[in-house]
Amino acid sequence: MAAAIKALNAKIRSNKYTDYICSTHFWGPVSNFGIPIAAIADMSKDPEIISGRMTGALTLYSGTFMRYALAVSPANYLLFGCHAINFTSQLVQGYRYINYFHMGGKEAKLQSVGQGVADKASEVKHKVEAAVGK
Fold this sequence. Notes:
Elements: H1 2-14, H2 16-21, H3 24-32, H4 34-42, H5 52-71, H6 77-102, H7 105-132
Helix pairs in contact: 3-6, 4-6, 5-6
């Protein structure tokens, strides 16, 4: 049995493509792609839920590992791409966080919601007056 496994491993490792697919240079970045996918999905959500500390930590993490991906030998471009996407999406999330909590985005949202409520109330008032006949 051990000889069969050894022969199968030698067969896999003899082809450069299957050798790459069976390596940590492939599976590490593939398993890591969940982070940038989640960050991209969060871009369409309300900025109220963004954690500034976590966004900062993930930005630093991705920046560090972008450098690491190019420093290893051979360079791992798939890992670099994964972290470049995450770095960029975390910067966007950081901008959204700063805009919402520190540059008046929250107040603007509350004001627009208040204006929307006032408009709806006026519309309902006109409908009621029209129905009553005033």
